[in-house]
Predict the 3D structure of the following.
Amino acid sequence: MRTDLVEPLCVAALNTPSSSASAQVFLRVLNDALFSGLGSADLLLPRVSLGEALPAPADRWLRSAGADLRVRHRVDRVSAVDGGWRVDDEQFEGVVLAASALESARIAASIAPNWSSVAAALPYAPIITVYMSSPDAVLPWPMLALIADQRRPAQFVFDRGQLGAPRGLMAFVISGADAWVDAGIEATVTATRDQAKQALGPWLRGSLTVTQVVTEKRAVPKERIRVDKETVTDEQQVSETLRKEEVEVEGEGRGER
Ligand SMILES: Cc1cc2nc3c(=O)[nH]c(=O)nc-3n(C[C@H](O)[C@H](O)[C@H](O)COP(=O)(O)OP(=O)(O)OC[C@H]3O[C@@H](n4cnc5c(N)ncnc54)[C@H](O)[C@@H]3O)c2cc1C
């Protein structure tokens, strides 16, 4: 149960090994994913890039609805002014800050200092993806769980060849990869290749070539034990309209990771 269900689900959902993950957040994930009825957690594997699966359709829909979208436009500063907010040199009635936690912390530093310092201090867990190619290999399913431990880094392999990419291309995903980042790319690639040969031997055809390694050091905030649910409230009297923010940074209401 622990090896086959708890470990892989915990590291996949929380990007944190179960030995150090928050049990409260993990229970929330189990409840949402397994006990909340049909459709509460569907496994969907895109056949197109993530950009084409999510942001591109949203972009098209917003533009068709007349929205003014400015992509590749970096916001430098946000400040509160009478009746709204100033974003760089333009004024708006409302602002939704949805950059990364670190960048949002920078932008909000003078508006919401308490929230900003919590957001800036969030610890992150890295994710490494090792892409390998084996000519003509087809796995029995587009996604397989692997047994991972101190010698076998990857928890999942995706057969990208069945998902729109060239046949034989596979993506090995290493979540909660702190130890493998410390070990270095060479050690990680060697261990992942050994793991692939051992676990997928019957389906591999010919050579197994590493084509790309992507390390995202700030992939996902860790959901660790001993980080209590914390609600940070910052208030600033900027005009007659008092703007108030209340952001949950851990626990209830944020169990998606
Ligand atoms: C390898 C990997 C695997 C992952 N797997 C999963 C998974 O299986 N399940 C899951 O739920 N999550 C997963 N995640 C995490 C998930 O991708 C993030 O939680 C999610 O993308 C966060 O979305 P977001 O909109 O909050 O932020 P982001 O996607 O980071 O978007 C923030 C946007 O803000 C923009 N921006 C930043 N600064 C500024 C600025 N100053 N001005 C204007 N724009 C700015 C950025 O360009 C970016 O477009 C994974 C992440 C990685 C890296």
Summary: Residues 225-257 have pLDDT under 50 and may be disordered. DSSP finds eight helices and ten strands in the chain. The chain has two domains: 1-37+74-123+223-257, 124-221.
